[in-house]
Write a structure and sequence with these properties.
It is built from 20 helices and 14 strands. By secondary structure, the protein is α/β, with parallel strands linked by helices. Helix 17 links the parallel strand 13 and strand 14. Helix 4 runs parallel beside helix 5 and helix 6 packs across helix 7. The longest helix is centred in the first third of the chain and has 17 residues. The radius of gyration is 22 Å and the shape is globular. The N terminus is likely disordered.
Length: 425
């Protein structure tokens, strides 16, 4: 019988492999064969490592926050030092981001294996983990079931589960019983997330609410802002800057429509598609509309431009700090919304669409304190941007409210570490 994880993952993986060769890279790792140097390094360890899984770039940087905090926090008196770690990621961009990290105790990185028993067994045989940590809530049935059979505790950190996912897990019924029984501890972002996870079969005494670690991951200091501004060819005072981050298919058209409606002289837009395989598609869209633009990869570059296409990975959080206002994507289309915390932490007013299920409590809180503004479509986005760009007092009040909100919610990482430490060996 082919496991449900393979059935769910195979179509998307095959489609991406056809159009994007990077999805065919590291195929051996996807079949559970770790890099030779990492396998040899693990074989020399005197202590079993902890396997941390982070699906893509955002989760990789969240894993960095967790692992760095563990490395510098020390252990309670008489306890063992932090264990060694390995870090896997599901996407090519995530693996690349993971490979760039330098963290005490991190032994190496690899692609997460396809969720088929022979592949996950092969990876588990090599890693021999003391525990498996899933950043956010990735339920891979074959891997979790095998962890349960081997007595490897499965831990979820910064967990969230949408109503749609909850309904899907409940429909699977008995197929999910064994994988979910392997979850020894789930540190969830909110009580709503915790309740949904309990409802699909994770025992209540294994589910705790620790908060959202993304509040801790977003620095408020704009270190290197002047250098970044110079690299992008942005001169202070030359005109407003709007950043549209983590946009999905169908949103760039609406963002560009709004941008052309603003009518504020000298406004520059930095446009950052969420997935790098869409960079070329968005470049063609800009060219087709006759909008002067330059790619981030071409900077520093002279010449007229109204739009900078951010065709890089891992820079968006810093770029938000340059903005007068920011729109966060995945929210005008039904993708659940992307990270609203990063721009708010830098004191930037945040705009988002109606679909913010992934960050529902954050969106509601930001709206309540005047730090965030919900819009429906290009016309409302243009009107909100026009208002913010014309009123520096409103921008400052919104930015200050957002930064204060983020500061008030920090601390989830420390609480998470306190809960997971007993399971790490």
């Amino acid at each position: 019988m082919v496991p449900v994880g393979v059935i769910a993952a195979a179509p998307a993986y095959l489609i991406r492999s056809i159009g994007h060769p990077e999805y065919r890279a590291h195929l051996a790792e996807r079949r559970g064969r770790l890099p030779v140097d990492l396998s040899e390094r693990l074989g020399r360890l005197g202590r079993r490592p902890v396997w941390v899984q982070a699906v893509s770039v955002g989760e990789v940087f969240l894993a960095r926050t967790l692992l760095t905090a563990m490395a510098v926090s020390g252990e309670p008196e008489g306890a063992s030092p932090p264990p060694p770690f390995v870090l896997s990621s599901t996407t090519p961009a995530g693996r690349q981001a993971a490979a760039s990290l330098t963290i005490d105790g991190l032994q190496g990185v690899f692609h997460f294996p396809i969720d088929w028993p022979p592949f996950v067994r092969r990876a588990l045989d090599t890693v021999r983990p003391a525990a498996y940590i899933s950043v956010e809530t990735e339920i891979w049935p074959a891997l979790l079931a095998e962890c349960g059979r081997r007595g490897v505790p499965v831990l979820i950190v910064n967990g969230r589960i949408s109503e749609r996912s909850r309904a899907w897990y409940r429909r699977l019924g008995r197929l999910m019983r064994e994988p979910l029984s392997a979850v020894r501890l789930a540190c969830m972002q909110s009580e709503e997330d915790a309740a949904r996870l309990r409802s699909v079969g994770v025992p209540a005494d294994r589910v705790v609410v620790t908060g959202n670690m993304k509040f801790d991951a977003a620095p408020c200091l704009d270190e290197g802002a002047d250098e970044l501004r110079a690299l992008f060819g942005l001169t202070p005072g030359e005109g407003p800057l709007v950043v549209a981050g983590s946009t999905s298919a169908g949103e760039e058209v609406q963002v560009l429509d709004a941008f052309e409606m603003i009518g504020v002289k000298g406004t520059t837009l930095i446009l950052a598609p969420r997935h790098r395989e869409r960079f070329e598609e968005v470049a063609r869209l800009l060219a087709g509309r006759g909008i002067p633009f330059v790619r981030r990869s071409e900077l520093p570059s002279a010449g007229p431009r109204r739009v900078i296409l951010l065709d890089s990975i891992g820079e968006l959080a810093r770029v938000y700090g340059l903005a007068d206002a920011a729109f966060v994507g995945g929210s005008l289309v039904r993708r659940g919304g992307q990270n609203l915390i990063e721009p708010a932490a830098r004191g930037v007013p945040v705009l988002f669409g109606p679909h913010t299920e992934n960050f529902a409590p954050v969106a509601e809180a930001m709206s309540a304190v005047g730090a965030g503004f919900r819009v429906r479509g290009a016309r409302e986005l243009a009107a909100a941007l026009r208002l913010l760009l014309a009123d520096s007092g409103l921008r400052n009040r919104a930015g200050s409210a957002g930064r204060a909100l983020i500061e008030a919610h920090r601390g989830a990482t420390r609480r998470t570490i306190d809960h997971i430490r007993p399971f790490l060996g």
